[in-house]
Amino acid sequence: MKRTRFFERCSHSYQYLSDMCKSVTEEYTDIKFSVVQCDPNFREPIKIINLVKDISDFYNENWLGNADYIHIPDARKVLDNYLKYPIIMAYQQYPDGSIDILGIATLKYYQNTDDFVNPYYPIPNKRFFEVTGILTKQNSLVKNIGKRIYEILIEALEKYQEVLPDFDVIFVADCRNYMSINGARGGAKYLREERGKNAYGKIVGFYTVRENGVLTEAPTFVAKFDFNSSPLTNTIEFSYQEDADLFESMLQIITSKLASYDIAPEAINMDECGEVAFYKLGDDRINLDDITILPNGTEKGNDRIPWPITRKRVRGGIK
Length: 319
What we know:
This protein has 319 residues and is α+β, with helices and mostly antiparallel strands. It has one domain (5-318): Aminopeptidase (3-Layer(aba) Sandwich). It is built from 7 helices and 15 strands. Strands 1, 2, 3, 4, 5, 6, 7, 8, 10, 11 and 12 form an 11-stranded mixed sheet that branches. Helix 2 runs antiparallel to helix 5, helix 3 (45-62) crosses helix 4 (75-84) and helix 5 packs across helix 6 (178-195). The radius of gyration is 19 Å and the shape is globular.
């Protein structure tokens, strides 16, 4: 099965997401949440072209933090995502037709088979959705957009289980990126408290990427949204410090903190970035609500310079 075929064959694949976007939009007066492929404001070819450029520019302009945090998609990657996966966007539209993007995310579907294995979540024969590219506008006056996007995705995916009952819902976050962790647990918490859903975000493993034996980015947490079980209640603090070999130091801290949660031997696969090692936790009930990340400045100092000043091609786009 190709990794995109679920969205091609499922008649409800975009409908659940569209229904949730409509529900959240009704709580605002001048902000719209939508699946962009279903949005009547972006039906004409020229409007789709402009939208792809706007989304690419949004990532470029608003991701100004540590360059290791996110793989910035260029226009070609945004178009590829548009053709394959639902893109959720929050925006304001002005009388002249221009838009101001407030937040965005892409929902991808994969199925690991003998012919295709996602190296970042290589669970054998596993079907899963991956929430990727979540980003909100810097210094926006409108708050909690990221949490509302997570809410839309999580609740819609719970409905998807009626169509495809055995799948995981995951997202990944750089081990220093407390903002992404906060957004994910905030979305799950909102569903528990406001909608009575049994939704939790839990760390289920982590991965590393090496090239010629050297870590090329910080270790990355792999978290899963769970709808049916209770989490552990055991506070874990990840505190990092500047180090001559920062990524290796972070890996040692993570391995030490998670040692009692039954870290499985690494599953190693290759992709265009190098050697990817995934470490699955035997006890995967670690609630994101109980995770504390203290980056202590390690999230700074490697600031990304927006295009076109510098371009560096990486997995999924350009840094």
